[in-house]
């Protein structure tokens, strides 16, 4: 069985081994961060199969900085995510995009993240990383409102200067 994860110590884990580790610790896999290549046509089925083993239906690309550099690359990336989303949906899986700080950069006078989601189908999960948004001085609530219903999962995490009781987080829990 091929490995799908390599930990910090260099140990390679198969989907079955990860599932056992989750089960042994009474945990559930509720998402995964992938590279764009994991959703490429030649890798999509194995990615879906591995995530079915894990019990996870959320296939989120975790940052794609080269794809988010220009209006043209964003358009191409949106087309890719839309197409792969349709293919994954046929197997009850959801494709999504997890933002990083660079996604809030301006491209041709507009925010790259916004440009991407304006071109994506509503079925594509908008996984906002609250910590990255706040560190980029972006109000994540604006995106939850602008793209209402698009965030099927959210990545909540504290950062050095942003804690769960900090302004910007507290509004999320009202």
What does it look like?
By secondary structure, this protein is an alpha/beta fold. 37% of the residues lie in helices and 16% in strands. The protein contains 6 helices and 9 strands. Helix 1 runs parallel beside helix 2 (41-54) and helix 3 (71-89) crosses helix 4 (112-119). It is globular, with a radius of gyration of 17 Å. The mean pLDDT is 90.
Offer a quick outline of the entry.
The protein is of the alpha/beta class.
Give keywords.
single chain, two-stranded antiparallel sheet, five-stranded parallel β-sheet, alpha/beta, globular, 174 residues, 6 helices
| Overall mean confidence score, pLDDT | 90
Instruction: Describe the largest sheet.
Output: 5 strands, parallel
Poorly predicted runs are none
Q: How would you spell out the order of helices and strands?
A: EEHEHEHEEEHEHHE
End-to-end Cα distance, whole Å, is 45 Å
Oligomeric grouping of the chains: single chain
Q: Structural class, from secondary structure content? A: alpha/beta
| β-sheet strand percentage | 15-25%
List the helices and strands and how they pair.
Elements: E1 5-6, E2 12-13, H1 15-24, E3 32-34, H2 41-54, E4 58-62, H3 71-89, E5 94-98, E6 106-107, E7 110-111, H4 112-119, E8 125-129, H5 130-135, H6 140-146, E9 154-155
Parallel strand pairs: 3-4, 4-5, 5-8, 8-9
Antiparallel strand pairs: 1-2, 6-7
Helix pairs in contact: 1-2, 3-4
